[in-house]
Amino acid sequence: MTRIVSIVLGVLAFGLFMRLWVGAGSYPDMRSLEQKIDQQNTANDEQAEIKRRLQMDVAGLSKDDEAVEEHARSELGMVRQGETFYQVILRTDQQVAAPGAEVKASPHVE
After folding, report:
1. d(CA 59, CA 38)
2. What does R_g of the chain's alpha carbons equal in angstroms?
3. Where are the domains of the chain?
4. Is 61 in contact with 71 (CB distance < 8 Å)?
5. C-alpha distances in angstroms, 97 versus 16, 67, 90, 93, 101?
6. Euclidean distance between the first and the last CA atom of the chain, given in angstroms as a whole number
7. Rounded distance, CA 13 to CA 5, Å?
8. What is its subcellular localisation (predicted)?
9. Which residues, 6+ apart, have CB-to-CB distance to 57 below 8 Å?
């Protein structure tokens, strides 16, 4: 009788120890989840920094008309009335400006 109880307890203990090493909730599974948590925390920190910069940008735009004008000029390519917009394309940028189109460069700039 004690031998059967010992065998049953041994099998039960073996099953419980196997669960620690294999399957859901095991040590390797917990390490994997901790790595995923660390990756998500890193991504959250990056997004929080982006959010902080955007909030500062919005605060600056709401207080200052010059900041609005600067954004309009840099991001939208807007110019004031009476100004002339010039776009300079360097020889190294010609393939980027018009992929697939041949650009003939003149020796002088007009």
Report:
1. 31
2. 33
3. 30-77
4. yes
5. 66, 29, 10, 6, 9
6. 105
7. 12
8. Cell inner membrane
9. none
Q: Are 51 and 57 in contact (CB under 8 A)?
A: no
- Asked whether the beta carbons of 78 and 85 are under 8 A apart, the reply is no
Give the separation between CA 10 and CA 35, rounded to whole angstroms.
34
Would you state the structure tokens that stand for residue 85, as one six-digit string? 């917009």
pLDDT for the residue numbered 108: 46
pLDDT in tens, 67-82: 888 888 878 878 888 8
In angstroms, the CA 28 to CA 93 distance is 51
- Dist CA 29 CA 31 (whole Å): 5
